[in-house]
Each structure stands twice: as structure tokens, then as C-alpha cells.
Amino acid sequence: MRVLLFVFIYCSTLFAVDATLDVVKTVQKIPNIEVSYFDSKDAQEAKKIFKILMTDLKVSSHFEVFDGDSYKGNFVDYPSYRSKRIDLLVRIEMRNDPKEDKAILYLYDINSTELKISKIYTISDKKLYPFIAHKMAIDINDYIKAPSIAWMNRFVVLSKYVGSGQTDIVISDYTLTYQKVIVRDGLNIFPKWANADQTEIYYTKYLAKPTIIKYNIYTGLSQNIIQSNGMAVVSDVSKDGNKLLLTLAPDAQSDIFLYNLQTKKTIQLTRYPGIDVSGNFINDDSAMIFISDRAGYPNVFAKKLDINAPVEQVVYHGKNNSSASSYGDYVVYTSRESANEFALNTFNLYLISTKSDYIRRLTANGTNQMPRFSIDGGSIMFLKQTQNQSALGIIRLDYNRSYLFPLSNIKIQAFDW
Description:
Blueprint: E1 6-11, E2 23-28, E3 32-38, H1 43-60, E4 64-71, H2 78-83, E5 88-96, E6 101-109, E7 114-123, H3 129-143, E8 156-163, E9 166-172, E10 179-183, E11 188-193, E12 200-206, E13 210-216, E14 222-227, E15 232-237, E16 243-251, E17 253-260, E18 266-268, E19 276-282, E20 287-292, E21 299-304, E22 312-313, E23 323-327, E24 330-336, E25 347-353, E26 359-361, E27 367-373, E28 379-385, E29 390-396, E30 401-406, E31 412-416
Parallel strand pairs: 3-4, 3-5
Antiparallel strand pairs: 1-2, 5-6, 6-7, 8-9, 8-31, 9-10, 11-12, 12-13, 13-14, 15-16, 16-17, 17-18, 19-20, 20-21, 21-22, 23-24, 24-25, 25-26, 27-28, 28-29, 29-30
């Protein structure tokens, strides 16, 4: 591979109109990569992986991706690819055997004229083919020693409306190509991963009272955690998985509670006659941000995890900041920027730091809601709605790039990843 050149440049924010901040970043000259699949009797299945892999490599922001379509034979014309300035060549082959299906990745380094990766991926369930593509993308990305994109191989858990008073809990890949219903029947809402390994979730089910349930996605075992009269939601889980920030409404109005899974004790962190919801851990799980109307409109506030700790306003921009998510010292929040009575209002996403005056606008149009950080903090997933479409969006923070995955016949109530 030709040497990657590192240069210092000034990068604007995600869109040209987002002139809130200039960010000085170190970026690299990314390699050109061509992707193709073997034209055989299993070509249709190979093509499915090929399409997802193309998307993954683009979303990584570490490659300039070119469509090589199908190919026959094993010959690689290195001089021809060099003349097209291709640095890496990917070829995908499918082999369907009676016992198990296999996908094979071949990665050629055109500049060194060598086959660098030849790897077999076993497919136990054909519906899981998107994750084969994600694993291939991760391996290719690791070869060039780019920042990790391991988050691509994680599940997204979401609740979707299926009828009146009916919502299912679904696990999917980040592109929503793979979807599997894991909880159905009744109103099942606000899913949240219970651990970093993604073996269990919390969700709220409406029984006699709203009830928070812990559910193992592999064994199907469930456990009732806590109930509340008016509202019961897990809004965040501590890094060690032992503590939960809950939104409960035992006495009509909602407040934030800290729940210890080991001791089963609940501590009420806020006591406000209005609305306090959506607590998120910050500062190494020693404090939290949350949404409250104590300023007369929804806004982001912070508080240490102590009953008597003072509440501090975090955001001084906008008049309707209705949802937020945190990662380390960073907070992404939704801010309403229009007041249309008969049309979609504009809600944009902003990124701030709890340690400085840093602020950066991440979107420029449409209704952008429910921002959620990736596990490594490098990406943000959100829901976007415009006059023409609804989509699940991914913002790659370090690269000022955004990608949208249209939502076809699916209405998401909440999600986590």
C-alpha cells in the first residue's frame, strides 16, 4: 500500500451551514478500495454481503470505496488496478455446503502485489449475513491500522409499534438489514442494554403497573426489577452494570432514582414538582445529566449522585432541549429551532463538553431525535424525519460525515446500541 500521508487541516462542522465551530484535526489520505464478489451459483448470497460490506467501508470513513461488481476466476491484474489508483482489492466468495455455509474474504494489497487476507467466515444462520459483512469490514479496517470500527458488529435493540397498544422489542444490526423480534405481546417499550456484552436488556412492560424487566436475549429468562405507578424507565446503566438510573413516578410527577442491583436499594436523586426524566451517567459514573422543565421548558441539567448535591444547568442554547445522551465528558442533545403549528418542526443535534464551552452543531435540517453515542463514543445514532422520509442516522464525529438508513414500514419508539 502506498504510504498514507498525514496532514493537519482545518475541518468545518458536519454541514457547511453549521458554522458553530472550526475543529483542528489530523486526517490521513485514505486508501482507494475496490470491492467485488465471485460470480458463481451462490452469487446472489455473495452479492448481499457485498452490498453491506460496501456500506460498512463507506460508513467507516477510512476508505474511498469503488464498486467492482462481479468477477470470474482468481487472476488479479495488479498493473491494471495500479493504473486505476486502486490500493486494495476485496473479493468475496460464497460456498454453500450441506452442513454449513461459508463466506470467504480475499484482500489483495495492489501496491505490494500480495494476498494479505484469506479468511473463512462460517454462517450458522443465513439471516445473519449482515454481521458477516460487518466482521469483514472490521478485519479490512484492522489491516490498515485505522481506528476501530468494532461497533459495527454490535446489536441495536429497539421497540417498534406494531398496532394499537402493541410494541415489539427487536434486535438488529446497525443498518437494520437484520431484524429479529425477541419480545412481543403487549406494550414493551424503552429497551436498554444491561451490559457491554449485549446478553441482556432492560425494558418497560405495562402489567398492573409499569414494570421494568431484565431479559436475557439468549436464554429467554426474565426478571422483574421494579414497578412504579405512573412511569418506570431505565435511562442508563453504569459501566460495571451494577447501578441503574431510573425515571420513576411514584407520586404523579417523574423524578430520577439511582438503583443498586446488588443491594436492591433505591435512592431518589431529584425531588422536583415538575418533570425530571432521562438520567445519563457522566464524569466516570459520579454524576448525571438529565432533562427537566425546571427552567420553564425542557433543558439539560447536571447533578452529582448525591441526594443533597445542587442541580446545575448544562445547556444555555435553545428553548426546547428534550433529549440527551452522554459519553465521558461529552453530551449530545436535541434542540428545537422552529415553532411550526401545522408542519414538522426543526430539531437539530448539538454536541457539547461538560468541561468547557465547546459546542458543535451536528445536523442542519429535519427533525433529529433520540441521539445515542456508540460504545466507543466516536459515533452517534439518531432518528431523522423530513417531509420526504424517516431514517436511522449515523454521525461519524471524527470525520464530519453522516449516513442515513431509510425506515421502511417501521416506527421506532426507542432504541439503544
